[in-house]
Input
Amino acid sequence: MNEQGDDFDAVGNIPNPSGAENGESDHMIDATSGDNDQDGGRMRRAHRHTAYQTQELENFYLENPLPTEDQRYELGQRLNMEPKQVKFWFQNKRNQMKINSDRLENITLREDHDRLLLTQHQLRSAMLHCSCNICGRATNCGDIDYEVQKLIVENTILEREINQLYSKIPSRPNQMLVSPSQPPHCSSSNPGINATPELGLGGGTRTTEKERSMFLDLAIKALKELLELGEMDCPFGKIDSRSSKAVSLINEKYKNASNNVTKPPGHVVEASREIGLVPMTCLTLVKTFMDTEKWVDVFASIVPVASTRKVIPTGSGGTKSGSLQQIQAEFQVISPLVPRRQVTFLRYCKELRHGLWVVVDVTPDQNPTLLSYGGSNRLPSGLFIEDMANGYSQVTWIEQAEYNESHIHPLYQPLIGSGIGLGATRWLATLQRHCESLSTLSSTNLAEISPGLSAKGAAEVVKLAQRMTLNYYTGITSSSGDKWEKIQVENVAPNMSFMIRKNVNEPGEHSGILLSAATSVWFPVNQKTLFAFLSNPSFRHEWDTLTNNTRMEETIRIQKAKRHGNIISLLKIVGNDTLVLQEIWNDASGAMVVYAPVETNPMEWVKRGGNSDSVQLLPSGFSIMPDGVPDRKGKSKNGGGGGSLVTFGLQILFSSNPTAVIPQGYVKNVEVLMVHTIGKIKSALRRQT
Output
C-alpha cells in the first residue's frame, strides 16, 4: 500500500498527536491484514512501544524525520518492529509536531491578546485616577488641552528652580513667587506626560507595574524563541571544527543585533540541545524547577549557589502555569581553572497544553560587554517537559549563553565552547541521574543491603555521602560567598590552587585550619577508561597513599542509579581496618570519584541508624570530563574517545588551632604529594595499555 502523506495514517485518519508523543501510549496504531477489511474500513489494534524503542525512534527522528523505506526496514529489524509500525510512528510524530506548533502559536497569540487588554485596562485606570507628580493633586483628564497643561508643568518647575536659587543667597530671606500653600492645579490627558527625566516617577505601584509588564514581555519573547528552537527540523546546533565551538543559526541574530556594540576579546556564544527520558512525572519536575532550593539540590554539581530575588505576579491565580521569578545563581565546572559563571535571569513557567510544560530562562538587561570576571548572559534557554507513560517524562533541554572566554583557562576552553561543560547534555544527564537515584532508593529494601546496616542507617550513609560530595565541590570552586579563602604560594606548579578555611565548633567539620588543594590536568585516555581505573578497588594501591600498598575491599555497596554507575560504597583497607566512604558515577555529565576516610566508631553508629551530621569528613577525589576537542569529522567527543580533563582535589587538617599559620613549606609538601599521585596514575595507565 502506498503512503497517503504525512498528515494521514494507513486508514486515512488524522493520527492522534498524544499517542505519537507518548511513545508508550495505546494510541499508536498498526494496520492488520486486508482480510479484516469491513465496509471499506480497516480494523486497528493498539500497539505499545517500549521505552527503548521510543528513545531509539526519537534519536533517529532528530537526524532524519523522513526516513526512506530501506531505513524504516532497518529500524524495524533493529527494534523488533514491523516496517508499517515504524512508518506510522514517523507519520504520527510529524503530525504531532505540526499540531503542537499550531497549538503553541495560538497560545502565544492569546497571551499577547490578554496582555494587551490588561495594558489597555491599566492605562484607562491610570488616566482616571492619576495625580500630578509636581503638585500632588488629582488631575482632571480632558478638561485642559495638552499645551496649557505643558505650560503649567513648566511654570511649576521654574518656580522650584527660582526658590532653590533664592535659598543660596545669604543676604535675602527665602522667598517664593507662589505660596507653597497654593500649588498650581495640573491636569493631563496623557498619564505619561509628567514623566520628565528631571522628576522621574519615583517608584511605588506604577514603577512595579511597569517592571512587571517589561519582565513578562521579555519572558514571552524568550518563550517564542524557545518554541522555535524546540522544533525538530530547526537547524539548531553544530560544532565548528575550526574553533570547536557549538554554534547555532539562531544565534546569528544576536551577532547582527549587536554589530554596533564593542565586545571584548574572547566574547563567545554557545548553544546546545539534548533530548531524553527522565523517570519523574511532569508536574513533579515543574515544581522542582520553580522551587530554587529543590533546584539547587538536584543540580548541586552544577549550581552551588542560587536564590530567588523576586517573585513577579502575573495574574496566574496561584498556579504554577504563568509563574515568573527573578533568580540569581552561579554555575560551575569542577575545576580551579574555570571561574563560576555568575548569572541573573528570569524563569517563566507555562503549561502549553495538558501534559506539556515549558520552563524558560532569559537574562534581562543583557550586557554585551561582559566585563566582570565570570559574568555571563543567559540567552533564551530552558526545557520542554512532556508527560509519558509509567511516571516518565520526555525532556527537551535547550541551553544558550554568552560569556567572555578569556576568563577561562585555555585547557578548558574547548570543553566549555563545545557545549559539554555547561551545555544541555550535562544538565539533562545530571537530572536523569538524580531522578533515577530517587526512584532506585525508593524501590529498594534498604534493610537488606548489608548485614548490620539498618534501613535508617542506609539512608544516613546516603546523606553522609551527599555532604561529602558537596564539600568536595566547594573545596575546588569556592567563590567569595564561601568560607574558603585563596592563598598565594610561591613557585607553585602550573594549574595548582590552594585555599584555607578556619572552622570553630561547626557540626560535621574538623575544628582548626583546613587546607584544600586542587589541580586540573589532561590525560591521554578517555573518560570511560580513566573512570574504570580510578573506581576499581583492585587498582587502588597503585595510586592512593591511604592504602599503604595494600588492597581495599568493599563492605557496603548502595546502588543509587545503575544506568549512571552511581554507587555509594564503604571500603576497608585490608590490614589496618581504615574505613573510606566513597561515591562514584560515570555518565554524559562527566565522571566523579569522591572519597573520605571516616572513623570506625562514628560509622558504626551511623550504620545502626544514628544521625550522620556529626561525622567529620575531609573529602578528596577526581572529577573527569572529556577534553572537548573535536575529532576529524568535527564532532566533539563526549567520553568515548580522545583525552580527558581531570581535576584532583584533596582536603587536609593542618592544625586544630584556628589561629595557626600554614607555612609555605607545608603547602609545598602537599603540592609534591599531588604531583606524585598524578604521576603514579599516569604510569599505571601506561602499563595497562
